[in-house]
Structure formats: C-alpha cells, structure tokens
UniProtKB/TrEMBL annotation:
It is found in: Cytoplasm. It comes from Amborella trichopoda. Belongs to the glutaredoxin family. CC-type subfamily. SUPFAM superfamilies: Thioredoxin-like. Residues 13-76 form the Glutaredoxin domain. Keywords: Cytoplasm, Redox-active center. GO terms for cellular component: cytoplasm. PANTHER family: GLUTAREDOXIN. Gene3D superfamilies: Glutaredoxin. This is Glutaredoxin domain-containing protein. InterPro entries: GlrX-like_pln_2 (IPR011905), Glutaredoxin (IPR002109), Thioredoxin-like_sf (IPR036249).
Length: 103
C-alpha cells in the first residue's frame, strides 16, 4: 500500500490502469477531453503489478479495482466514482485544487 500511495502522490492526477481494460481507456480519454493529462500506471506492465492490484482492491473494497483514480494524492475511486463527482459538479473543482486544471 505504501508503494501505491507514493506513486499516487507524485502527480496531480494518477490513474492505475490495465492496458487491456476498456474502462481504463475510457477514463483516460475522459480526463484528456477535460484538458487533464493524468499520469497512468499500466499495472499489467509493471513487475509489481499484482501487488499493486491487491492493494487497490483493498482500497476499493470490491472488484475490479481498475481503473483507480487519485486526485491530489487522494483516492477518488474507480470510474463510477469519478463520473458521479463529475455529474455532481465536484470533479472540476477537485482537479483545479490539485493543480490539474488551470481554468
């Protein structure tokens, strides 16, 4: 878990993803459409990817844990949580506060 927290705190928006996951691709496209350039960690391409996935599963509390999004070093959740924040108008202020959006 310490490794996940360290990786998640290195940039304003961090997405733990899998290269073969369509939801991972969708969340990355969504952020790019907002003008946000997240740091993406493809866990299926990392040597410790299984360890990271287990830590994220514990954090999410349900499966699958991917994609898992962190904003400003804080865990936001998988795609459904990110979209709920967006629909409620809370996502953009979070992104601004984290320094991921300027306008």
């Amino acid at each position: 878990m310490d490794n996940v927290k360290r990786m998640a705190s290195q940039n304003a928006v961090v997405v733990f993803s899998k290269s073969t996951c369509p939801m991972s691709h969708a969340i990355q496209t969504f952020f790019h459409d907002l003008g946000v350039h997240p740091t993406v960690h493809e866990i299926d391409e990392l040597p410790n990817g299984r360890e990271i996935e287990r830590a994220l599963a514990n954090l999410v509390g349900r499966g699958p844990p991917i994609p898992a999004t962190f904003i400003g070093g804080q865990f936001v959740g998988p795609t459904d949580k990110v979209m709920s924040l967006h629909l409620s108008g809370k996502l953009v202020p979070m992104l601004r506060k984290a320094g991921a959006l300027w306008l």
